[in-house]
Amino acid sequence: WDGLTHYQTTSCAFSMRQKGKLNPVHLVDVPGHSRLRPKLEEFLPQAAAIVFVVDALEFLPNCRAASEYLYDILTNANVVKNKISVLLCCNKTDKLTAHTKEFIRKQMEKEIEKLRASRSAVSIADIANDFSIGIEGEVFSFSHCYNKVTVAEASGLTGETVQIQDFIREYIKPLAQTCINRLNLRLDSYAFGL
């Protein structure tokens, strides 16, 4: 992948070495552009895990939008029912002015707490397919989600992707004669390569 700026769903094959043999993994890249978000629904029922990529350099101006998108994913019926694990991947952390993964995690938890409070006022009929997240009476934390949410740092440009590869190894189990569907979300307009 090489700095794609077009807005379309793309996919690629990726082989993961596990226990001495290569297992194919199907990665689906759905850009975070608002016009493409409905495409995500096509892939969530088949996803084994989600890599949600945020730009650690340009995080603050995009924090609210990224948090909204992640909130929608974490409350999605397919994600909750299938207990799909999510990796919040902070890309470009090799840059000197990049925000740390802890800063990004805390800011996104604060934003999701605001969303949780405002959206809890919406009637159940309006969000029939979604689940609520968090523990009532407590400030939101990713540890309150139905599924596991992990935060990691990476740099697609320098190839520092060990944490992503470890996440894939942990959550992707080889299937006989079949390629596993994967979902890699990105919020910035730059493709993120493994």
Automatic annotation (TrEMBL):
Membrane topology qualifier: Single-pass membrane protein
Pfam families linked: SRPRB
Keyword terms of this UniProt record: Endoplasmic reticulum, GTP-binding, Membrane, Nucleotide-binding, Receptor, Transmembrane, Transmembrane helix
A single Gene Ontology CC term: endoplasmic reticulum membrane
Keyword Transmembrane annotated: yes
Family from the record: Belongs to the SRP receptor beta subunit family.
Protein name, per record: Signal recognition particle receptor subunit beta
